[in-house]
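Loading example: each entry is read as two labelled lines plus one structure line.
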Amino acid sequence: MKRFYLREIAHARAGDKGDTSNIGVIAYKAEYFPIVLAQVTPERVREHFRGIARGRITRYELPQLWAINLVLEQSLGGGVTRSLSPDPHGKSYSALILTMPVDVDDAIAADLVKAGRQPI
Amino acid sequence: MRANAPRTRSLRIGAGASYAGDRIEPATDLAARGQLDYLVYECLAERTIALAQLERLKDPSKGYNELLDERFRRALPHCRRNGTRVITSMGAANPVGAARHTAAIVQELGLAPMKVAAVIGDDVLEYCLQHQDALQVMETGEPLAALAGEIVSANAYLGAEPLVEALRRSADVVLTGRVADCSLFLAAMIHEFGWAFDDWERLGRGQAAGDMVECGAIVSGGYYADPGYKEVDDLANLGFPYLVVQPDGSSEVTKLEGTGGVINRAICTEHLIYEIHDLANYVTPDVVVDFSDVRLEELGKDRVRISGVRGKARPAQLKVSIGVREGWIGEGEITYAGLGCLNRARLAEQVVRERLRISGVQLQELRVDYIGLNSLHGEASIPPKEPPYEVRLRFAGRAKSRRDAVRLGNEVETLVGKGPCSSSLPRQYVREVLAIYSCLVPRSAVHPEVVFVEADR
C-alpha cells in the first residue's frame, strides 16, 4: 500500500444550490473507482471538510461513469448570496476534496509512479 | 401557423450563453456556422432576476439583459438567413421590454418578418406576499413572513409549455423571464418532435440533453483545465457547445471545428453531476429526470453521445426563487510582504477588531481571511511548510446599515499609517446583500402567457 492524494486518481467539479454544495468526484480509470468508492466516504469527507461542512453529507453513486456525487448541506457559509467567503459558491471545494489522502495497492502505485505521480 | 407534422430528422440546438455577461463571439460563431435550428441563450443565475427587478423598479423600461442589444445585433442576421429560431431568458425581470427592444433591432436591421414573443407570468411576487404566512421557505423551514428582510422579487421556475405555445404560434424569437434552464432547450424539442407533455421518457432524455449544454462552455472545455492533469487546447478561444438531438430524445453534444476547448467523456461526467443532488430524481418543472443508467460515449473528437436517461412524472408544485434585501456586506483588504509578514498581518487583525469595538461598528457577522494561507478552506487547508513571503489580510462583515459596512472598510484603510509597518495600499468594497430563498407554490398559482410584440413605429 502507498498513500497518494486523491488528485492522482480522480478529478472533481463542485456546484452550489443555496447553502448546499455538491461535489462530483470521477475516477480517471475504471480500476481506480473501487478506491474512490471505498475511501471517499461521507465520514471521511466530514473530517476532511472540517470547519466547512456543518450539515448532513449524502453520497450518490454512478458506477458506469466511475463517479460519485457528494452532497454537503450547510457548507456554503449560510448560502451563496449572503456568505462572507471569498468563494461563496464553493467552486474551489473540488480542489479541497482532491487533497484527501487515499491508500492504493502496490500495482496501481507502481503505475502511478511510472506516470510521474508522486506518493505523499 | 406552421404545419405540425413531427420532425423525423435530428435537431440542432446551440448554447449561446450560460450567464448574463457571457462572451458574445462564440454565440455569433454558432449562429453563423452551426447550421442550427435553434439558438438558446440561458442568462439567469439565481440572483440575476432579483437584481434586474431592482433595476426595473428604478426605471420601468429596464430590467432585462444589458447585452441583449449587442448579442442580437450580431447574431440575428445569421439566424434570419439560416432559419434559426432563438429562445432566451434574457428577458429577466422584463420580458416584454426585451421583446420590444428585439423587435426594434429586427426592424432597424431590415430582418423583417421575424415574429418576436415574450413569455410572462413567472413573476409571482403578489401571490407570495398574499400567502406569506402559509408558504414555507425551503432553506429555513419557517414561513415566508418570518424572513427579516424586505422581499423584492418572487419568480416561479416555468417549464417548457408556454415556450412551446410561442413556437407553435410561429415565434422566431422567444424572450422569457425565469424558466428552468434546461426547459429552454426542451421547448424546442417538444415543439419539433411533437412530444406529448406526459411522455416522461422522452422528456427526461430531452431534459438531460438540455442540462448538458445549458451552462455553455463549461461542457466544452471551460472551468476544467488543470495543467499536467487535464489539458485543454486554446482555452482563450473556447467554442460553445451544441446538441444534435434525435426524435427519441437521445443526443450528441459537440462543438464547431476550429474552436478551442474539449468535449470528452470526463468533462461531460463532471458537468452531468454539477448542481444535481439525487441523480435518480432531478426535479424540473416538466419532468423528473432519472440519470441512474445514463451512458456517455465518445463518438469521435469532441463528440459525446448521451443515452440511457429516463423520466418520471413532473412535480405537482413549482419552485419559486425569492429575492430578499438583507443588509450590506463591507470588505477591506491589505497585503503584508517580506520577513515577518504573517506576524504583522496578525497584529493588524487585532488592531481592526479592537477599533471596531471602540468605534461601535455594528456587524452581524465578521470573517477574517489570510489570503495565501487558508482563505478558501480554513482549517481544512494543507498547512505551509515555510512562512509565506506575502499574505493578504481580508476582512468581510455583514451589517444592517450601509454605514456600518462602510466603516469596516474604513478601519482597514486606516491601517496604513496607524497599523503595523510595510503594507500594500488597502482596498475596500461595499455591496448590498440580495439573499435568495426558495419555496414551492401550486401550479394553479402560476399563469404563464405568451405576448407577441411589434416594433414601435
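The longest strand of chain B covers residues 317-337.
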